[in-house]
Amino acid sequence: MDARKLVVEPSGAVPVAALLAAGDEFRGARIGVILSGGNVDLATACARFSAGEATRLQLSVLPPEVAADDPFARFGDLLERARATDLPEPNAFTLATVGADGRPSARVVLLRGFDTRGFVFYTNLESRKSRELAANPYAALCFYWLPLDVQVRIEGAIQQVSDAEADSYFASRPRGSQIGAWASLQSTMLQSRADLEERVAEIEARFADQEVPRPPFWSGLRVVPERMEFWYGQPSRLHHRDVYTRKGDGWTLHHLYP
């Protein structure tokens, strides 16, 4: 049975029961359930399987080289594990912000670097997320790595990276992405795709036969963590949760009920 895709036919040719019976094979795989007609019990189709739980339990034990009092090292270890899976974008995370009106919004962005100073992503400084962060300079991040059944939640204040750091990263981007950064009036109304393509053509002509400089309205934002939670999925919803809260120059580690 293909662990990447399961076709559920109303005739029962590939019944949901087969999925439940294949827990060991499907554990850690991304499962696509294709409904080709009829009524299928999605709660059953999406059931969590008990097979393979030992692997998940092992993730809660830090490897010897990762210090328990260092959440950054712990994050780095998990990120490397995620990169070793077949996830297409292990650097992807959900970024949540709150505007001046008190309304939250969220979107998926990509982590472009992290160290003990914090977690960096890049964006148009005139975008909705940037406007909200200017009004309320705090953000929440959530990484979820399905093959590991692990999520990391990070909360903290926002700082803009230095011009030198932003220039260095922008210079490393593909030229098409550099052109796109200039062409996009991010988060504003677009009348037609043709308008965007026209702007792209204009920018390409402007910087023909020369390097594309970083736009003054484009930079990196660093989330300086004040709280970091490591969540490990466990059987019977008895998940394992470790929370680090900043205390001076160090961190305090607590455990949470699931």
Task: Describe this entry's structure for a reader.
This protein has helices at residues 16-21, 23-26, 42-45, 53-59, 71-83, 128-135, 163-172, 175-183, 193-206; strands at residues 5-8, 32-35, 92-98, 104-110, 113-115, 118-124, 138-145, 150-160, 218-232, 240-247, 250-256. The chain has 258 residues and is α+β, with helices and mostly antiparallel strands. The protein has two domains: 5-45, no CATH class; 53-256, Pnp Oxidase, Chain A, CATH 2.30.110. The strands form two sheets. Strands 3, 4, 5, 6, 7, 8, 9, 10 and 11 form a nine-stranded antiparallel β-sheet that branches. A hairpin with a 4-residue loop joins β7 and β8 (150-160). The two termini are 34 Å apart. Residues 1-38 and 48-52 have low confidence and may be disordered.
Assign the CATH class of the largest domain: Mainly Beta
Shape: elongated
Give the SSE string: EHHEHHHEEEEHEEHHHEEE
What do we call the CATH topology of the largest domain?
Pnp Oxidase, Chain A
Number of separate domains: 2
Number of helices: 9
Largest sheet: 9 strands, antiparallel
What would you report as the Rg, rounded to the nearest angstrom?
A: 22 Å
Please give the alpha-carbon distance between the first and last residues. Answer: 34 Å
